[in-house]
């Protein structure tokens, strides 16, 4: 039996390589070669990875639902609440055996933090940034999915941190979103800062940008029992309860997150009741996060223009 990987960009190729490393047979299909009629005739498929552009989701989910193929769909699911609802309606019960690609939930820093008692936290900030021109070899932002006004922009592209905030504090809601655009890419945010609150009195921000010349991925959480500082790139948590900082470091390889989430998905393919990692983004559990991301995208208020040339 084979797992289809639809979308042959860098993410699709990574998925195919990881599946093969985990002992699976993977077949990479570029989106331009997609032929629904041909795929509908196949009976040798046990799962599908949807690694296409954000704008291409519903068609593939409907195919998977019709064939009963569990799927792994890259994040974000959609940029509007209506689009999210359509995908969930199409997936139906198959969502219990499918996965949404928020692999940052498998970062060792995140797993350690999730095991903490966070009830004392009253304030938080998450930040991720990187110069979009330096992202990948042989990749052009202006020619990519990310440059499109519908489904593009940094809020969607780097939405992992927004999902992490929702995973740790499930009651969060969007208050406002301040975004910076670009003169050459109308409706595309190059930096966004999201303000959130919850009913427990927590208030915080999630910020993402395409602009930082230095790659960064960090967060802070202020609590009555102490301060927590997270560095996702260095794989460190610094905790300070007023008696001096204590640093906890973790071994970390970025690809380990991809393999860990893939293992959980492979387990779901075999058994929807499989025991998964505590924060595993099973699609059936990810509606609130997907709706939050869509809500944030819809609430963007643009001011100013980024100075970046391509």
TrEMBL record:
Listed EC numbers: 1.1.1.18
EC primary class: oxidoreductase
Domain of life: Bacteria
GO molecular function, one term: inositol 2-dehydrogenase (NAD+) activity
Keywords in alphabetical order: Oxidoreductase
Protein name in UniProt: Inositol 2-dehydrogenase/D-chiro-inositol 3-dehydrogenase
Species of the source: Octadecabacter temperatus
């Amino acid at each position: 039996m084979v797992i289809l990987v639809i979308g042959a960009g860098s993410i699709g190729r990574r998925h195919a390589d990881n599946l093969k490393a985990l002992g699976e047979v993977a077949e990479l299909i570029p989106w331009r070669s997609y032929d629904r009629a041909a795929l509908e005739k196949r009976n040798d498929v046990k799962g599908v990875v949807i690694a296409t552009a954000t704008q291409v989701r519903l068609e593939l989910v409907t195919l998977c639902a019709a064939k009963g193929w569990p799927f792994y769909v890259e994040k974000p699911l959609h940029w509007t609440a209506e689009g999210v609802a359509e995908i969930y309606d199409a997936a139906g019960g198959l969502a219990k055996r499918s996965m949404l690609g928020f692999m940052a939930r498998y970062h060792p820093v995140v797993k350690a933090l999730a095991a903490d008692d966070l009830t004392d936290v009253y304030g938080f900030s998450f930040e991720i940034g990187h110069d979009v021109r330096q992202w990948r070899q042989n990749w052009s932002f202006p020619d990519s999915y990310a440059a499109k006004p519908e489904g593009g922009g940094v809020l969607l592209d780097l939405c992992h941190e927004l999902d992490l905030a929702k995973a740790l504090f499930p009651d969060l809601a969007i208050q406002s979103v301040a975004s910076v655009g670009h003169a050459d890419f109308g409706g595309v945010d190059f930096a966004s800062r999201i303000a959130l609150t919850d009913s427990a009195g927590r208030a915080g921000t999630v910020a993402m940008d395409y602009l930082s010349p230095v790659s960064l991925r960090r967060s802070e959480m202020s609590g009555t029992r102490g301060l927590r500082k997270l560095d996702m790139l260095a794989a460190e948590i610094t905790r300070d309860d007023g008696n001096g900082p204590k640093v906890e470091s973790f071994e970390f390889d970025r690809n380990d997150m991809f393999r860990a989430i893939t293992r959980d998905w492979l387990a779901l393919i075999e058994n929807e009741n499989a025991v998964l990692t505590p924060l595993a983004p099973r699609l059936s559990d990810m509606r609130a996060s997907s709706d939050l991301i869509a809500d944030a995208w819809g609430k963007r208020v643009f001011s100013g223009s980024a100075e970046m040339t391509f």
